[in-house]
Amino acid sequence: MTAASPRILHRLTAAGAALAGLSAAMSIGNALFMPRLRRMDISKPHDRVVVCIPARDEESTVPLLIADLRAQTYAGELRIIVLDDGSGDGTLAAARRAADGDPRITVVSTCDPPSPGWTGKAAACRTLADIGLEDQPDVIVFVDADVRLSPGAVAASVAALRGREAALLCPWPEQKSGSVAEHLVQPLLAFSWMSTLLVPLANRSLRQSLSVACGQFLMFDAGAYREIGGHESVASSATEDLDIARALRSHGKRTVLVSGAGFVSCRMYRDWPQLREGYTRWLWSSFGGRMGTAVALAGVSIVYLLPPAAAVLGTGSTRRLGTAGYLAAVTARLCSAQSESAGRANLADLARACAHPISAALFATLVLDSRRRFARNELSWKSRPLNAPTTDVATRASTMKK
């Protein structure tokens, strides 16, 4: 090691600790000021709402969601459409049993593969929208089959959509986890944006770079959804939820993120193989190519891996800076958990926060794995190959508007 090496290590550790402190400040701000869904008076009149559920191999989850929707305390007109998207299990029969003749529920099925240039999720949402928009609803909602809803979720979401005069409302679902891999990785979904932007300010902006959305639950003003061409504007996107929010903002329309804690929850995966397949299908597209990926991973290493390493292996002021950086990251994770769970952070959240360096290392591994699989054209989801290119949604939306 050269004489300059300790100075370089010290400076990098100081930079990482400072950036970790900034992420902690952002997370504290969101813990204090994150907008949330609120329970509403169910006697008030509401918009006509259609809820669309794309379901592929969701035999065990879709009946639970249908039961949740049938139990909604929504005073307005509510229609539910379930699409069995070429499932290889008993999803179709399970959905029909759960509907149990309820006249508000329509269950349809298709075995057609997505059209060229479309991902399976976007194609399924387009099919659902084509059906749902026939009755001219005021609000169209897309909900993943593994989401769970409290009885007041739809009413609270409609009230928030209209009260904030938004084209898109995303009530961020509380992410549930069971396996060790889920505990380590799933909290990073919320942490990734809670530690990098202030949600109340981002909600007031039309900047596409400040968009946040989660495709597990997306509620649109139906007119705004039609105006951008619906999911056709994000047909081949690996992250269609985020890109459709950007498409709306490119048209001057507001998109709003709120905490859905107490109303919306989701357990996305059950084990490491599912989690790995789920994340690697889209992480390759997150940082704008190889150079962006390299910069992002370097940032993760300096901010979240170097400080704890310096805290253990360093000496003197370098060790103190590393300790401060590690504690700042733990604080950021705890505040993120508090925001996501509506202030119900517990000892499990503390344990996950303390394991943040392991989570960051796993995230970096998933990013590299996603880039590798993308380069080899090995990406797939639920037995369907994924399209490699991602369209420029802003250009597509602008073209469609003309």
Structure report:
With 402 residues, the chain is α/β, with parallel strands linked by helices. It contains 16 helices and twelve strands. The protein has helices at 4-33, 62-70, 91-99, 120-132, 153-163, 180-185, 187-194, 199-204, 222-227, 240-250, 272-280, 290-313, 316-340, 347-354, 356-375, 393-401; strands spanning 49-55, 78-85, 105-110, 139-143, 147-149, 168-172, 174-175, 217-221, 255-259, 264-266, 380-381, 384-385. Strands 3-2-1-4-8-6-9 form a seven-stranded mixed sheet, with helices on both faces. Strand 2, helix 3 and strand 3 (105-110) form a beta-alpha-beta unit. Helix 12 crosses helix 13. The longest helix has 30 residues, at 4-33. It starts with a helix and ends with a helix. Mean pLDDT is 91; it is low at 389-402.
Considering the chains and any ligands shown, give keywords for the structure.
single chain, about 400 residues, alpha/beta, 16 helices, 12 strands, about 15% strand, globular
